[in-house]
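Field log, afternoon session.

UNIT: design team B
ACTIVITY: writing a sequence onto a fixed backbone
BACKBONE:
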């Protein structure tokens, strides 16, 4: 069951992405904290999915850490994405720009779920010097460095190929729908499908509602436009070049979108990665397995803090 922790006080930080699109950014903790932790959400979701991790960081580490979450362009309360900007490359540049504006100094731990993890890899690929200079720890949750290579939706291979074809065609249609959001009645009808696709054996109704609420806020242009680059990304070589940065990866053994081989290949490419398999869990580990995610995040963050203190001693 989810840990009972109290959501700390949140400050909304005025910010924009690199091209002027408004960014919804939330911060917990002092701006001059020794370490900043940035939590990146997945495709069609928003920063609210990290609410248990934000609370756990505040409870365990207090003012030693500042926690930042933001909604990616075209998601949640951030501005809409144009079709040309709905790419992982743009999201990597957005992360670089937000770090410069919201956390311009000091070490940073990056934690990414699904598309958020892929955004971190894109940032490392496109901004290697900034990454090497700033990033003190990594957490990858239910993500991949190999696009849709391992995605089978929990189905036999033939059916998985048919589903991917249908998904690709649907994404092309959605990409042409501009800044519209999914209609409420459609989201109500899709709720059982979302429950099956995103969650494992056990989840609460509140968690399913939160995931559905996040999807309902995403712009259809972003949902459809991002799908091609998500499916095509390959960043194992980028991970292999990251050196000895502390890292952890978690995956559920019932994850239908980024199954265990995705996390295993990340750990193989980046040997500092501590891999955790969560039995019975699906894609939404922050909600399904908050204790395991919190433990991994706190471990990486504490190591980064100790390194920071050692450097300044």
């Amino acid at each position: 069951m989810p840990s009972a922790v109290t959501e700390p006080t949140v400050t909304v930080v005025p910010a924009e992405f690199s091209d002027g699109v408004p960014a919804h950014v939330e911060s917990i903790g002092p701006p001059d904290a020794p370490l900043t932790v940035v939590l990146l959400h997945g495709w069609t979701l928003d920063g609210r999915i990290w609410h248990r991790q934000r609370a756990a960081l505040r409870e365990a580490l207090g003012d030693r850490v500042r926690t930042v979450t933001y909604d990616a362009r075209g998601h949640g309360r951030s501005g809409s994405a144009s079709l040309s900007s709905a790419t992982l490359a743009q999201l990597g540049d957005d992360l670089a720009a937000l770090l410069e504006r919201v956390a311009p100094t000091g070490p940073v731990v990056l934690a990414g779920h699904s598309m958020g993890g892929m955004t971190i890899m894109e940032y490392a690929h496109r901004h290697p010097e900034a990454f090497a200079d700033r990033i003190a720890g990594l957490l990858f949750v239910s993500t991949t460095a190999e696009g849709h290579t391992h995605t089978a939706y929990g189905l036999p291979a033939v059916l998985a190929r048919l589903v991917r074809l249908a998904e690709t065609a649907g994404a092309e249609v959605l990409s042409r729908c501009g800044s519209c959001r999914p209609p409420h009645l459609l989201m109500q009808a899709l709720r059982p499908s979302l429950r099956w696709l995103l969650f494992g054996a056990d989840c609460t109704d509140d968690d399913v509602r939160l995931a559905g609420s996040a999807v309902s806020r995403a712009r259809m242009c972003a949902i459809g436009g991002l799908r091609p680059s998500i499916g095509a990304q390959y960043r194992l070589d980028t991970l292999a070049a990251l050196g000895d940065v502390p890292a952890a990866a978690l995956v559920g053994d019932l994850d239908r979108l980024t199954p265990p081989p995705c996390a295993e290949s990340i750990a193989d490419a980046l040997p500092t990665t501590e891999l955790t398999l969560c039995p019975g869990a699906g894609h939404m580990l922050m909600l399904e397995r908050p204790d395991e995610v919190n433990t991994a995040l706190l471990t990486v963050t504490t190591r980064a803090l100790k390194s920071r203190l050692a450097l300044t001693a």
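LOG NOTE: The chain has a mean pLDDT of 90.
NEXT ACTIVITY: expression trials, pending approval
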